[in-house]
Design goal:
The complex is a heterodimer of chains A (about 300) and B (about 325). Chain A is an alpha/beta fold. Chain A has helices spanning about 1-15, 30-40, 55-60, 65-70, 105-120, 135-145, 180-185, 195-210, 250-260, 265-285, 295-305, and strands at about 45-50, 95-100, 125-130, 150-160, 160, 165, 185-190, 215-220. The chains are: A alpha/beta (about 300), B alpha/beta (about 325). Chains A and B meet through helix 5, helix 6 and helix 11 of A and helix 3, helix 4, helix 5, helix 9 and helix 10 of B.
């Protein structure tokens, strides 16, 4: 989580400095969800995620240097710089993939889940958000996931906002996990800022799916401490509305302390995170740009032979 | 055999050949599909490989995308091309782009079968020809078989391709009979076909309009006009060399499609012909398409809005008209 926090903080700085172009969506305050959830997966499992994916990327173990390079549009990224930060894929780590259209990742998860069910192998973690629950894709996906009893864990990161519109202004029933009842699958609502709670809940759901017990809807309640993207001009939140939400890092740290972890050790782990992110940024800045060859070959294919 | 049977044969052969091919969509399971194209497949291959979905067009294509990335080869059905708009997000924002955007890490070996076209009095929401919307998108094959043989050959090729294909059938062609080669018959994606050789004028047609053009060609032959009919067959990628060669040969080009003219396939084909054959053309490329209206349900109105053999014949006759002293006489 320290890495994600440090990474997200650095990404904002890089965006302001122009080393990263285009919109950037960070998840400060939400780190526990992606980190806790991906920790429950096994190699071979699949993850689909959204435009706010960094905790999943880091939790899945994507190497930081190439990740930051991809965000910068450099050739050394896993997608050769083509994708931008919202569209990473990493086949070796089961990230297939991230997508920026709200709700779309759910449909990809249906497909993966179906293939996994046929193969009797693997589980899909489908990370999505409270904004997506109102999409048609959410409805279609949950119904199919439930109908076919697919090995999919639908993790709704309820960060209280769909862009600038707060939850109580985009849904009537704020207990999003209740939607599971309508689809006929188990649903639960958990504290998304407690990484151990997230991990425990997702692990149970993943294991249930792996044993053939079918899908689960988990609503992880959290809060998006920053804007919807780096272009957010703000002005739509009420003061104190985030007061009740713990900082996942502070919570984890205080728990570690109470278990006997020393300040020294905590300091060292923090240092490692800072160093890792700094190296990744250096790697990115030193990486070459892609040339136009991938563009030419793709365009030639679809333009067809010249007359 | 009938066009529909040729499609069934293609599906059956490919499913026998490759266990990763799965077929799904609305009513395609036990029922065999509303046009009976998937008849018998559920019985032979079982419910894991041939199954019904809820009415969820975007879900059908999006799920196919996930399966394709996971190693299956889905062949899905969208019952009417008029429902394509519901599935466009999955098609345009995933299927067509992920192979390039994800840096070559995934393929999309899937086929979306659908059907369109008027003439069945099915009304405005069940009669359209929306192929332009798919053909506009790089990363996706768009093909329109006009004959039973091409139905089989192109579908087999589409299923075997690792690239995604929108495979557009025509509701009035399902009962069309024709010779279909047995066994391993494949028609390469991206190719057009000269179905009738001629010398005076080239007609470039899609889907059922190929047959209307052939009828017009027969009538024109009796009037001393020799028409070449080219079945465009693959809208994307377009077989520009074949199309342009025909226009250069005859010097006159007419493009015919049921789709609306504006911003449609006829517009693209006309531009390609103009670019490639300008110096050999005796006049501008002409286009016939559907009238710019919703397709009406009334049997008194529907025939008026779609091109037909008589209209094609009249258009060609007008193109061939030689006024005294005009260039190209």
């Amino acid at each position: 989580m320290l890495i994600v926090r440090e990474l997200d903080t650095e990404l904002v700085a890089l965006t302001r400095a122009g080393s990263i172009r285009g919109p950037m969506h960070i998840g400060i305050g939400q780190e526990a969800v992606g980190i806790g959830a991906t920790a429950a997966l096994l190699p071979g499992d699949i993850t689909t995620t959204t435009h706010r994916p960094h905790a999943e990327y880091v939790g899945l173990g994507l190497p930081l240097g190439p990740m930051v390079a991809e965000f910068m549009g450099r050739a050394t990224g896993p997608c050769g710089g083509y994708a931008g930060h919202m569209l990473l894929a990493d086949r070796t780590r089961g990230l297939l993939g991230a997508t920026g259209i709200v709700g779309q990742s759910l449909l990809l998860a249906v497909g993966h889940g179906y293939a996994q069910k046929l193969a009797r192998s693997g589980v899909t973690l489908c990370s999505t958000g409270d904004g997506a629950v109102n999409s048609g894709a959410f409805n279609e996906a949950l119904n199919m996931i439930a109908l076919w009893s697919l090995p999919v864990v639908v993790l709704v990161q309820n960060n209280q906002y769909g862009l600038t519109v707060r939850l109580d202004r985009h849904v009537r029933e704020r207990r999003l996990s209740l939607r599971a009842v309508g689809y006929g699958i188990p649903g639960t609502s958990i504290d998304g800022n407690d990484v151990e709670v997230v991990h425990g809940s997702v692990r149970s759901a993943v294991e249930r799916a792996r044993q053939g017990g079918g899908p689960t809807l988990i609503e992880a309640v959290t809060y998006r401490k920053t804007g919807f993207s780096t272009s957010d001009i703000g002005g739509y939140t009420d003061e104190h509305e985030s007061d009740g939400f713990a900082d996942p890092l502070e919570l984890a740290e205080s728990r570690l302390r109470s278990l006997g972890t020393s300040d020294d050790m905590l300091g060292r782990v923090r240092e490692e995170a800072v160093t890792a992110v700094a190296s990744a940024v250096q790697f990115g800045l030193a990486s070459p740009w892609p040339d136009g060859s991938v563009l030419r070959s793709a365009a030639e294919r679809w333009d067809g032979p010249p007359a | 055999m009938r066009y529909a049977q040729a499609l069934t044969e293609a599906l059956r052969e490919e499913m026998r050949r490759d266990g990763s091919v799965v077929v799904f969509g609305e009513d395609v399971g036990k029922y065999g599909g509303v046009f009976q194209v998937t008849k018998g497949l559920a019985d032979e291959f079982g419910a894991n490989r041939v199954f019904d979905t809820p009415i969820s067009e975007n879900g059908i294509v999006g799920a196919a995308a996930g399966m394709a990335m996971h190693g299956l080869r889905p062949v899905v059905e969208l019952m009417y091309i008029d429902f394509l708009p519901l599935a466009l997000d999955s098609l345009v924002n995933c299927v067509a782009m992920f192979p390039v955007v994800y840096g070559g890490q995934v393929k999309m070996p899937l086929v979306v079968r659908t059907q369109g076209g008027a003439g069945g009095f099915a009304g405005p929401q069940h009669s359209k020809s929306l192929e332009a919307w798919a053909a506009h998108i790089p990363g996706l094959h768009t093909v329109m078989p006009a004959t039973p043989a091409d139905a089989k050959g192109l579908l087999k090729a589409a299923i075997r391709s690792d690239e995604p294909v929108l495979f557009i059938e025509h509701k009035l062609l399902y009962n069309k009979r024709g010779e279909v080669p047995e066994g391993e018959y494949l028609v390469p994606l991206g190719t057009a076909n000269v179905v009738r050789a001629g010398t005076h004028v080239s007609v470039f047609a899609t889907s059922r309009m190929v047959w209307e053009s052939l009828t017009a060609a027969d009538a024109l032959a009796r009037r001393g006009i020799d028409v070449e009919v080219v079945d465009v067959r693959s809208l994307r990628p377009l077989d520009s060399p074949t199309l342009v060669a025909s226009a250069r040969k005859t010097g006159r080009a007419l493009v015919v499609s049921e789709s609306w003219r504006a911003y449609g396939p006829t517009a693209e084909i006309a531009a390609v012909l103009s670019e490639g054959a300008f110096d050999m053309l005796k006049g501008p490329v002409k286009r016939l398409g559907g009238m710019s209206v919703p397709i009406p349900a009334s049997p008194a109105l529907e025939p008026l809005v779609i091109p037909n053999a008589a209209g094609i014949e009249a258009a060609i006759a007008a193109m061939m008209e030689v006024r005294a002293g005009s260039p190209g006489a």
